[in-house]
C-alpha cells in the first residue's frame, strides 16, 4: 500500500526554477516525487490520508550530493597509510558510523573515493540487510593504483594493461558503480604526487572497459601530466586537479584547462581538505602531511613541534590553498564543470561538513545559487544520476534536506540541517546534541 | 575530596539501591571524581569545600542503582528470529557493524557492562579495538571471543571447533593471547543444527584442561549446558558459571536433579538461567492470541513453551532456595530477543521467585561477581567505577519500574541516550 506524503516549506529551492518558490511543497509516493510547486497550486492533488510534514518556517532543498567521500576515514589528521593498515572489521564499523553522519548532515548521495578492500561493498550489504543506514552510495570498490601508488594500500595495485583490465572486470563482478584511478601519487608515503602513475595504455585499458559497461571514471591528479593522461584516456572527472609541474611549481595552465573543457570532464578541486589542514596547523594540532611533505623524507622532523618547521609548513599550506583557490577561480571563469566533492573524511576534513567545500567554491567565484547547484543537480549529473537525484522534480527520488536558514543568503546555511529525507523516508537523526558532535568549526583566528 | 584535579561530579538522589544492601537508602549524594566514585553519603552530610567547583546532577525525586551488568549477551545477534546457523552466513564486516549498533543500543538502555558469550572469528576483539579507538559507543566489554565447541557442536560455526586436550589447551591460550577475558565453552549441543542439545559435548578430560588452563591465566569459564548430564561434568571440571542450566535428561524429559543442584551449591558456581527469552516469547504470543490471529499450531507452540518455562521457573526457584547465586544475563540478541531489553530477563527472575531487590542484585552485584569484575563494578561504593543508572520509579516496589530509565552514567559520563551515531 503506498502512502502519499507531502512536505510544506517556507521556501523551496528546487534547483529547477532559478527562483526559490515561497510556500513551496512537494508531494511524493513510493519514494519518488510526484509533484512539486507552490502549495496553493498543488494542494488539490493531495490525498485526504496523505502524511503532511509541515516545515512552514524552513527551507526545503534537494538532498545534497557529495561527489567525493572517504567513509573509512577519520578526518583527525591521521594518514591514509595508517587507515590502510587497519582491520576491515574496524573500518566497517567506522564506515557505518560515517554513513549515518553523512546522511544526518543532509547528504543523501555520496560517491566514495577510496575504501579498503570490500568494506564499503559490505556496508551496502548491511544496508540491504536492514542493519545499517546510509545515503545512496556510488561505490568504486577500491581505487586502482600502481604498485606503491596512491591508496594502493586499499587493495587495488596492478601493473600493465592486462592486469588493469582484469582488476576492472573483477570490480565489475563485485558490483562497483564506477572506477576510481589514482593517476598520480598522493599523500601515500610510497607514492610520487608530482609524477604520473599509470601509463597511457594502462589508463586506456580501464576507461575502455568502463565505457564497455557504461561506467564512469574519475582520476586522482596532483600534477599536470596525470591530468593530461587522464583526459587522453577519456576520464569523466578530474579530482584535485592541481596545476603542478613535476618540479612542484604550481601555475595555472590555461591550455590544459581548455582541454578539460573540451573533453567535458567534471572537476572536483577539493579545496577545503587543504584549508582544514591549515586550520589544524594554525591551532597547533598535529595535522596530516600535505601532498609533497611526505616526499621530503622528514617524517620524524616534520612531525616535530619546532616552531620554524611548523611555520614553514603553515606558510606552505597557505600558499597551496591560495594557489588552489586562484586556479579554481580561473576554471570557474572559463566555465568548467566544477562540482562539490568534499574529500572528507580524508586528512583533517571530517565527514558531515560538506558545506565547507561548497563555501570555498563560492569564495572562488560561484554565486550562492551556483554553489548550491554544485552540491545538488550538477553533482548528480557528474555522477550520472541526473535523472535520480539533485533536484526536486517529478520522477526523481524523494531526497530532501530541510534547512533552518536559506543557503541563497549565505552558503554556510547548508549546515543548518533540521530534517532529512531519503527515498521518501523521514530519517530519524537522533538527538540534536549528537548531531553537533561531527561539526567542524572554523578556528577563531580565521 | 582533597583531590586537586577538579573534575568532580555530585549526583543527588532521592533513593539509592547500592547493590550491596537489601534496603533502599534515602537522600544520598554520590561524589564522583573522573570515572571513580569517591564518596557516597547522606546529602545532608555532604561537605565539599566551597571553593571547589563541581558539576551537580539533581535526581532528588528519582532512584539510582548500579549500572546494569548483563552477564550473557551475543552482540553479534540480530534478534529477528534468525538462527545462529543463518547468522554466520553474514560476513564478518556486516556482523561487526551490527555488533557496534547493538553495543550502543544496550548501553543506552542502561546496561553499562556486558559479558559477550560468543561471536564469529575476531569480530568481538575488533569491536573492542573500535571502542578503544573511540569510534563505537559500548558498555564495558567482558569478552570470550569465540566459544569453544566440539566439531559440529553448538556455536562451532563461530570458528573454534577443537578436539582433545592439546587442542583445548591451545585454544584457551590463543584466545587469551587475543585478549579474551573469559572462556566460553559449549558443554552440550544447542540450537546449532549439527549439535545435540541433550548430550554432553566435551569429555571430562577436555573440560578439565579448559578450566585448568583458563584459571592459570586468571580467566573464568562459563559453560553452556542445555541438559543435566553436562552440568555434572563442568562442575567437576571446576567451571565457574553454568549457562542456561536446563535440567533435562538424555531422553528429553524435564527432571529437576537434586544431586546436581546440590553439587552446584557445593561448588559455589554461578548460574545464568536465561529465562527472559521464553517469557518474552510467551508475552508476544499471548498478545497475538488476544488479537485473534492465532492458529492451532500457534496454540500448540505456546503450550509447549509454557510447559518448558514452568519447569525452568520451578528449577530456578529450587536453586535460589538452595542459595545458588543467580547471575542475570539476557542472551540477547540471540533468537528473537533484541538488544536493549535486559529488563525482560530481570523481570523473569522475579517471576521465578526472586524479590525485586534480589533480582536487581542478580543483574548488578552478582552478575559482576560471576564476570570476575566485582573489584570495580556492580555496586555503588567508594572506590568503584562510576557506572550508575537513574530510574524514575522505584524498581524494588515493582520490578517493571526498571523500564523507567532517565539517565545512564558510565565512567562518570552521562550517555546521550538519543544519539544514533
Number of domains of chain B: 2
Give the overall silhouette of chain A. globular
| Main sheet overview of chain A | 8 strands, mixed
- In CATH, the homologous superfamily of the largest domain in chain A goes by the name Metal-dependent hydrolases
CATH topology of the largest domain in chain B: TIM Barrel
- Secondary-structure element order of chain B, as H and E? EEEEEHHEHEHEHEHEHEHHHHHEEE
The average pLDDT value of chain B, as a whole number, equals 96
Rg of chain A, rounded, reads 21 Å
DSSP summary: helix tally of chain B? 12
Polypeptide structure, described:
The complex is a heterodimer of chains A (446) and B (421). Helices cover 34% and strands 18% of the residues of chain A. In chain A, the strands form three sheets. In chain A, strands 1, 2, 3, 4, 5, 14, 15 and 16 form an eight-stranded mixed sheet that branches. In chain A, helix 3 packs across helix 4. Chain A has 15 helices and 16 strands. The model of chain A has no long low-confidence stretch (mean pLDDT 94). By secondary structure, chain A is of the alpha/beta class. With 421 residues, chain B is of the alpha/beta class. Chain B has two domains: 8-67 and 379-414, Urease, subunit C, domain 1, CATH 2.30.40.10; 68-370, Metal-dependent hydrolases (TIM Barrel). Helices cover 34% and strands 19% of the residues of chain B. Chain B contains twelve helices and 14 strands. Chain B has helices at 84-87, 92-108, 123-132, 164-178, 204-216, 228-237, 258-267, 276-290, 296-321, 342-351, 356-362, 365-370; strands spanning 8-16, 25-33, 36-42, 54-66, 68-73, 111-116, 140-143, 182-186, 220-224, 241-243, 270-272, 388-391, 405-410, 413-414. In chain B, strands 3-2-1-4-12-13-14 form a seven-stranded mixed sheet, with no helix packed on it. A four-stranded parallel sheet of chain B has the order 8-9-10-11. Chain B has a three-stranded parallel sheet with strand order 5-6-7. In chain B, helix 6 links the parallel strand 9 (220-224) and strand 10 (241-243). Chain B starts with 7 loop residues before the first strand and ends in a 7-residue tail after the last strand. The chains are: A alpha/beta (446), B alpha/beta (421). Chain A binds chain B through residues 74, 87-90, 92-97, 100-101, 104, 118-119, 122-123, 125-126, 129, 131-132, 428-431, 433-434, 437-438, and chain B through 78, 90-94, 96-101, 122-123, 126-127, 129-130, 133, 135-136, 416-421.
Amino acid at each position: 500500500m503506498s502512502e502519499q506524503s507531502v512536505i510544506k516549506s517556507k521556501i523551496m529551492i528546487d534547483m529547477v526554477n532559478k527562483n526559490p518558490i515561497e510556500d513551496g511543497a512537494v508531494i511524493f509516493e513510493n519514494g519518488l516525487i510526484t509533484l512539486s510547486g507552490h502549495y496553493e497550486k498543488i494542494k488539490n492533488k493531495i490525498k485526504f490520508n496523505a502524511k503532511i510534514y509541515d516545515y512552514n518556517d524552513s527551507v526545503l532543498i534537494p538532498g545534497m550530493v557529495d561527489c567525493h567521500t572517504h567513509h573509512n576515514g577519520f578526518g583527525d589528521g591521521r594518514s591514509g597509510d595508517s587507515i590502510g593498515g587497519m582491520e576491515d572489521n574496524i573500518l566497517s564499523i567506522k564506515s557505518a558510523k560515517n554513513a549515518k553522519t553523512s546522511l544526518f548532515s543532509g547528504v543523501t548521495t555520496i560517491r566514495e573515493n577510496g575504501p579498503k578492500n570490500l568494506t564499503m561493498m559490505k556496508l551496502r550489504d548491511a544496508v540491504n540487510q536492514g542493519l545499517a543506514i546510509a545515503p545512496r552510495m556510488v561505490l568504486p570498490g577500491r581505487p586502482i593504483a600502481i604498485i606503491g601508488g596512491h591508496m594502493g594500500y586499499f587493495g587495488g595495485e596492478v601493473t600493465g594493461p592486462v592486469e588493469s583490465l582484469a582488476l576492472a572486470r573483477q570490480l565489475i563482478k563485485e558490483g562497483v558503480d564506477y572506477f576510481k584511478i589514482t593517476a598520480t601519487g598522493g599523500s601515500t608515503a610510497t607514492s610520487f604526487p608530482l609524477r604520473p602513475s599509470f601509463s597511457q595504455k594502462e589508463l586506456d585499458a580501464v576507461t575502455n572497459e568502463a565505457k564497455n559497461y557504461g561506467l564512469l571514471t574519475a582520476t586522482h591528479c596532483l600534477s599536470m601530466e596525470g591530468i593530461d593522461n587522464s583526459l587522453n584516456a577519456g576520464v569523466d572527472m578530474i579530482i584535485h586537479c592541481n596545476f603542478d609541474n613535476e618540479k612542484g611549481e604550481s601555475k595555472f595552465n590555461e591550455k590544459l584547462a581548455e582541454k578539460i573543457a573540451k573533453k567535458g570532464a567534471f572537476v572536483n578541486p577539493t579545496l577545503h581538505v587543504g584549508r582544514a589542514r591549515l586550520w589544524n596547523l594554525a591551532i597547533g594540532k598535529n595535522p596530516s602531511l600535505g601532498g609533497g611533505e611526505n616526499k621530503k623524507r622528514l617524517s620524524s622532523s616534520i612531525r616535530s613541534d619546532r616552531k620554524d618547521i611548523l611555520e614553514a609548513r603553515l606558510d606552505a599550506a597557505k600558499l597551496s590553498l591560495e594557489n588552489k583557490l586562484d586556479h579554481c577561480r580561473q576554471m570557474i571563469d572559463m566555465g568548467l564543470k566544477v562540482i562539490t566533492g568534499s574529500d572528507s573524511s580524508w586528512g583533517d576534513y571530517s565527514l558531515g561538513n560538506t558545506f565547507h567545500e561548497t563555501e570555498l567554491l563560492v569564495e572562488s567565484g560561484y554565486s550562492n545559487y551556483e554553489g548550491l547547484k554544485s552540491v545538488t543537480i550538477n553533482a548528480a549529473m557528474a555522477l550520472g544520476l541526473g535523472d535520480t537525484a539533485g533536484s526536486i522534480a517529478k520522477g526523481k527520488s524523494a531526497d530532501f534536506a530541510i534547512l533552518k536558514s536559506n543557503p541563497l543568503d549565505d552558503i554556510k546555511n547548508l549546515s543548518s540541517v533540521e530534517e532529512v529525507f531519503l527515498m521518501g523516508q523521514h530519517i530519524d537523526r537522533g538527538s540534536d546534541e549528537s548531531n553537533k558532535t561531527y561539526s567542524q568549526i572554523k578556528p577563531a583566528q580565521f | 575530596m582533597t583531590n586537586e584535579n577538579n573534575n568532580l561530579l555530585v549526583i543527588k538522589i532521592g533513593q539509592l539501591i547500592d547493590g550491596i544492601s537489601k534496603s533502599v537508602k534515602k537522600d544520598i549524594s554520590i561524589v564522583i571524581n573522573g570515572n571513580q566514585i569517591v564518596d557516597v553519603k547522606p546529602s545532608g552530610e555532604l561537605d565539599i569545600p566551597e571553593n571547589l567547583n563541581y558539576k551537580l546532577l539533581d535526581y532528588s525525586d528519582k532512584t539510582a542503582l548500579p549500572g546494569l551488568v548483563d552477564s550473557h549477551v551475543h552482540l553479534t545477534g540480530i534478534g529477528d528470529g534468525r538462527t545462529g546457523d543463518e547468522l554466520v552466513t553474514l560476513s564478518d564486516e556486516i556482523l561487526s557493524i551490527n555488533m557496534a549498533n547493538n553495543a550502543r543500543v544496550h548501553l543506552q538502555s542502561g546496561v553499562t557492562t556486558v559479558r559477550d558469550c560468543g561471536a564469529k572469528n575476531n569480530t568481538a576483539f575488533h569491536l573492542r579495538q573500535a571502542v578503544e579507538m573511540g569510534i563505537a559507543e559500548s558498555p564495558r566489554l567482558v569478552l570470550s571471543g569465540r566459544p569453544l565447541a566440539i566439531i559440529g557442536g553448538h556455536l562451532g560455526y563461530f570458528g573454534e571447533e577443537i578436539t582433545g586436550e592439546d587442542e583445548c589447551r591451545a585454544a584457551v591460550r590463543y584466545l587469551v593471547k587475543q585478549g579474551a577475558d573469559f572462556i566460553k565453552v559449549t558443554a552440550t549441543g544447542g540450537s546449532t543444527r549439527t549439535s545435540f542439545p541433550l548430550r554432553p559435548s566435551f569429555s571430562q578430560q577436555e573440560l578439565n584442561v579448559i578450566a585448568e588452563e583458563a584459571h592459570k591465566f586468571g580467566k573464568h569459564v562459563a559453560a553452556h549446558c542445555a541438559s543435566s548430564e553436562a552440568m555434572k561434568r563442568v562442575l567437576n571440571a571446576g567451571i565457574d558459571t553454568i549457562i542456561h542450566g536446563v535440567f533435562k535428561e538424555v531422553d528429553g524429559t524435564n527432571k529437576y536433579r537434586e544431586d546436581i543442584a546440590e553439587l552446584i551449591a557445593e561448588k559455589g558456581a554461578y548460574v545464568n538461567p536465561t529465562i527472559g527469552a521464553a517469557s518474552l516469547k510467551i508475552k508476544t504470543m499471548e498478545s497475538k492470541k488476544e488479537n485473534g490471529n492465532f492458529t492451532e499450531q500457534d496454540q500448540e507452540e505456546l503450550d509447549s513453551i509454557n510447559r518448558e518455562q514452568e519447569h525452568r521457573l520451578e528449577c530456578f526457584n529450587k536453586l535460589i532456595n538452595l542459595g545458588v547465586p543467580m547471575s542475570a544475563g539476557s542472551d540477547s540478541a540471540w533468537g528473537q530477543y533484541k538488544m536493549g531489553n535486559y529488563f525482560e530477563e530481570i523481570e523473569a527472575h522475579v517471576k521465578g521467585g526472586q524479590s525485586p531487590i534480589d533480582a536487581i542484585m542478580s543483574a548488578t552485584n552478582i552478575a559482576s561477581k560471576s564476570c570476575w569484575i566485582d573489584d570495580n563494578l556492580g555496586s555503588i561504593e567508594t572506590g568503584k567505577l562510576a557506572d550508575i543508572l537513574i530510574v524514575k520509579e522505584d524498581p524494588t516496589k515493582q520490578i517493571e519500574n526498571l523500564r523507567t530509565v532517565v539517565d545512564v552514567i558510565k565512567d562518570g559520563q552521562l550517555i546521550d541516550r538519543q544519539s544514533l551515531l
